[in-house]
Amino acid sequence: MSRPILSLLLASAMFLAAPSARAWGPLGHSVVAELAQRQLSPAAEREVERLLAPEHTTHLADVANWPDQVRNDPALRALWKRTSRWHYINFSSDRCHYVAPRDCPKGECVVAALAREVQVLGDRSQPDAVRREALKFVVHLVGDVHQPLHAGYRPDRGGNQYQVQFEGKGSNLHKVWDSGLLGTRHLRWRDYANLLDSRSPVTLPRPIAPLDNPYAQWAEESCRLTAAMDFYPSRRRIGSAYVDRNLPLAERRLRVAGRRLAEVLNRHLGDVVTQHAHKH
Q: Of 199, 234, 254, 257, which shows the fewest CB atoms inside 10 Å?
């Protein structure tokens, strides 16, 4: 076997084995961001627009995928290396009980990353550039933690190593949940957001005790969904019955993520504009 072919095969194997960080894919992240923006308080929306102004946008959907996109930017390789583990958490079993030292060593998981970035975002003593980057991560990571397989199990790396057949092609369960299920709608992100927004207001899941860490609760919710019967298809084939059963679940997670993201931003940005104006 020639060296170029061998190198390509090794690279492909490494890609398949590595945990994906593209929860929901660009479509899902943009939908979550758009749903959240529509639920912002006027004060929070003004602060979002102020922070994003140097990006020449006012829309959260325009920056929602940036934390994934940095992996393809050589200039930001160090940032990707530092943050790549922020996008997911691997639980040790289907009991889905968060124990920080075990499930999030050194704070390198989506639960701890969300807590840190939310704190930075709400810290008015930080430079705008730092808070702007935190805003991008918060928007993205809230989406990540609501994708069930970004809070999956360590043995199969959140479904990345559970091979399936989907639409006549080989895939893995993580990829199906990242983008495959949502892709069956054949909608652009704004149209998808309009579809979900047209439904009755989403009811948030009941809190899970203890109540001291909402981000851990969100991760536990996602993990428990993966433990449901037939979430992992026993015959490893994703057909229309699986899509019909699970697409509503995926869409509900998008809606819950959008509402929770709005609540986080309203809480941490809602009073920033007034206080910021007083400083000048």
A: 234
Angle, CA 217 vertex, CA 89 and CA 84 arms, to 5° = 25
Q: Average pLDDT for residues 24-50, to the nearest whole number?
A: 97
Give the active site residue among 22, 87, 255, 260. Answer: 87
The residue annotated as part of the active site, out of 46, 85, 86, 144, is 144
pLDDT digits (tens, 9 = 90+) for 42-95: 999 999 999 999 999 999 999 999 999 999 999 999 999 999 999 999 998 768
Based on the residue annotation, tell me whether 156 is a catalytic residue of this protein: no
Q: Is 24 a catalytic residue?
A: yes
Cα torsion 178, 184, 186, 192: sign: negative
Is-catalytic flag, 280? no
Is pLDDT of 15 > 90? no
The question of whether 186 is a catalytic residue gets the answer: no
Q: Known catalytic residue: 276? A: no
**Could you confirm whether 150 is annotated as catalytic?**
yes
pLDDT for 237 equals: 95
| Domain coordinates in residue numbering, the chain | 20-275
Fold observed for domain 20-275: P1 Nuclease (1.10.575)
* 99-123: average pLDDT: 96
Q: Which helix (H) or strand (E) holds 150?
A: none
146 is catalytic: no
| 94 carries an active-site annotation | no
DSSP string, 61-94: GGTTTHHHHGGG-GGGHHHHHHHGGGG---BSST
What pLDDT does 20 receive? 47
